[in-house]
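[worker-b] picked up task from shared queue
[worker-b] task type: protein-ligand structure
[worker-b] ligand name resolved to 2-acetamido-2-deoxy-beta-D-glucopyranose; SMILES cross-checked against name lookup, match
[worker-b] sequence length check passed
[worker-b] input payload:
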Amino acid sequence: MRSLLLDVLICILLVKVSKSEKITFENVTVRWRVDNELIESVATSESLKKIIPDVTQVSVHILGHVPILYEKSIFDIPNLNRLNLSNVGLEEIESQAFGNLPPLENLLLSWNNLTQIETDTFSDLNVSNVDLSFNSITLLEPGAFKNFNASIVSLDSNRLTELLSGVFENVTLGSLSLSDNLLHTIPPTALSSIGLTKLYLLGNNFEEIDPEVFDLQELVSLDLDYNSIKLLRPGGLRNLPELKKLWLSGNELEEIPEGVFNNTKLIYLYLAANNIVKIASKAFEDMSALRVLNIDFNNVTHWDDNWLSGAKSVSEVSVRYNLITEIPDEVFKNNSHVTSINFQGNKIRNISAKTFYKLEHIGYLNLANNEIDNWNPDLLVDVSVGSLDLKENKLSCIEGDLETVFRNVEITHLENNPWNEQCVKKVEEFIMNKKLDVS
Ligand SMILES: *[C@@H]1O[C@H](CO)[C@@H](O)[C@H](O)[C@H]1NC(C)=O
Ligand SMILES: *[C@@H]1O[C@H](CO)[C@@H](O)[C@H](O)[C@H]1NC(C)=O
Ligand SMILES: *[C@@H]1O[C@H](CO)[C@@H](O)[C@H](O)[C@H]1NC(C)=O
Ligand SMILES: *[C@@H]1O[C@H](CO)[C@@H](O)[C@H](O)[C@H]1NC(C)=O
Ligand SMILES: *[C@@H]1O[C@H](CO)[C@@H](O)[C@H](O)[C@H]1NC(C)=O
Ligand SMILES: *[C@@H]1O[C@H](CO)[C@@H](O)[C@H](O)[C@H]1NC(C)=O
Ligand SMILES: *[C@@H]1O[C@H](CO)[C@@H](O)[C@H](O)[C@H]1NC(C)=O
Ligand SMILES: *[C@@H]1O[C@H](CO)[C@@H](O)[C@H](O)[C@H]1NC(C)=O
Ligand SMILES: *[C@@H]1O[C@H](CO)[C@@H](O)[C@H](O)[C@H]1NC(C)=O
Ligand SMILES: *[C@@H]1O[C@H](CO)[C@@H](O)[C@H](O)[C@H]1NC(C)=O
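[worker-b] inference finished, payload out:
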């Protein structure tokens, strides 16, 4: 029987041997470019520095299997500009694998098998982009990104259920993408002092917009599409003073109360594909910067005149596939900049001659797939229209000469209406003539 001491000695020896054989790059193909010439070599080395030549600004692409990036394996390379280590079966990055890489801009680590990012993995890096998307990351240890500076970090399509505070310690980061993870909240101060302007949280499990969590003074874009948000509370956006784009499509909203968006600087607001039935009369009050409003695929039954009365900059309104039966008169009287109006797929029956009162030009007007059975020949007398879509309505005829009725319209779509016998010929001729005009 061997003594315990001998066992321990053998163990130490084994550890020593395996330590000295920490080869990060074993028989991998390494590609880089010099003066536009693609160079490829098969290399085995513990360090990338020993593989690539000492030329200015090299972009390296590694193919093959690299299960572990050992400490200092990508270190002290004064000319490395881009490193693509995507899809190499990477399972682990030892802390301080990266360091002293002054010109590094792009670090691509997507489509690997990383499960956690340890403390000090990306410390002191000053880069433009780190891509960690499509891994299996469940944990980012505090300090994983200590003293880190980047424009974009992507952690899309991982398995994060929580974000610990201290992950982004002393960090400057412009855009953080955490889409398609399993997050339902973020610790209140975790992201607050890093200068974030864009935050993508599409496809997570957020149920609300908590102003303590979303306290990001510089944030301009917030993407919360396809979460589980049921309720918007008045004041929910009060700690996002610079927010200009907000995506809330694909959530579970049933109501838009007042006091959520008032006095924001929002320019783009996407509320499509919720279950919205009710929008408060003053829901969009004081949104003087609003340009694009999208409420497609909801259950809105009537259009409230007050919604956009203060939204003087609005240019694009889309309310496709709701249950609206009537468009009120003078609906856009306070929105002289509106140029794209989309009411496709509602239940609108008739449109009065005063509907588009005060508008001079509508670039795009879509009324297709409604129940319009009567077209007032005077409706578009004072407004020019780029493209008008009346397909799939219930029109059996349109009174008067169609060239005159649609004289201010560049392109008119009238297909798939139940034209009566007297009318069908005139409509077909009109469509044919328009086609000839165009060609
Ligand atoms: C790498 O190549 C060497 C020499 O061809 C070979 O002995 C070794 O087994 C290879 N290692 C792997 C992991 O394929
Ligand atoms: C990075 O490498 C992966 C896998 O080899 C490749 O599919 C991808 O196109 C590369 N990306 C860039 C930006 O070079
Ligand atoms: C490693 O990641 C690749 C690409 O994401 C995936 O196809 C593969 O199944 C993963 N392997 C393991 C063992 O998880
Ligand atoms: C970080 O990189 C940017 C751009 O490459 C450079 O302007 C800046 O001086 C760098 N900061 C440090 C601390 O090296
Ligand atoms: C914060 O990070 C910068 C580099 O990005 C570094 O120069 C500075 O010393 C760090 N400050 C602290 C308090 O760690
Ligand atoms: C961070 O990077 C930006 C742009 O690359 C640069 O302008 C800035 O000086 C950097 N900040 C630090 C602390 O290095
Ligand atoms: C927004 O509306 C809410 C509720 O109507 C009101 O209490 C709040 O003072 C308004 N906020 C601003 C900044 O106007
Ligand atoms: C919205 O309408 C759809 C179908 O028209 C219906 O299935 C759904 O239950 C409605 N949602 C609400 C909140 O009324
Ligand atoms: C709408 O515009 C009219 C003048 O065209 C103005 O008197 C009215 O105050 C505006 N409504 C709102 C809510 O701003
Ligand atoms: C639509 O038609 C109905 C019945 O013909 C009428 O009562 C209603 O006032 C019309 N609505 C508009 C907006 O013209």
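[worker-b] attaching auto-annotations
[worker-b] Residues 421-438 form the longest helix (18 residues).
[worker-b] releasing lock
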